[in-house]
């Protein structure tokens, strides 16, 4: 874990605390771009189908003209821990950013793994 990785976890946690205050938004992602910017996103929960925060972060990156994400982390609302990307997001992230680093694990001792090395994820 680099200092910038810890800062990314803090950024995602801050977004979760500020913006995930209803059942409509329960997860927050922060992603660092290759040039050091941080993109954040929350998920969308809806009966008609929602979207994971990682997916929305990919769209936000594209919207902002960002070509490469370097590191990503997702955290849950209400102080929940770091969340591993779901299978669909893992596939999306691997396809879009094969060199992406993903922060996973216990918040007190998080680890950084290549997106291609993620173990089967926890559903969310
Ligand atoms: Zn997902």
From TrEMBL:
Superkingdom of origin: Bacteria
Q: Which InterPro entries match?
A: Cyt/Deoxycyt_deaminase, Cytidine_deaminase-like
Q: Which family does it belong to?
A: Belongs to the cytidine and deoxycytidylate deaminase family.
Query: Protein name, please?
Result: Cytidine deaminase
């Amino acid at each position: 874990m680099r200092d910038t990785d810890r800062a990314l976890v803090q950024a995602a946690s801050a977004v979760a605390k500020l913006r995930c205050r209803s059942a409509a938004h329960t997860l927050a992602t922060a992603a660092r771009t290759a040039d050091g910017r941080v993109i954040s996103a929350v998920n969308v929960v809806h009966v008609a189908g929602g979207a994971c925060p990682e997916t929305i972060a990919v769209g936000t990156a594209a919207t902002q003209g960002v070509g490469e994400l370097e590191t990503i982390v997702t955290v849950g609302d209400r102080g929940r821990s770091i969340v591993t990307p779901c299978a669909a997001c893992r596939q999306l992230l691997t396809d879009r950013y094969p060199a992406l680093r993903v922060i996973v694990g216990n918040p007190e001792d998080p680890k950084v793994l290549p997106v291609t090395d993620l173990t089967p994820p926890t559903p969310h």
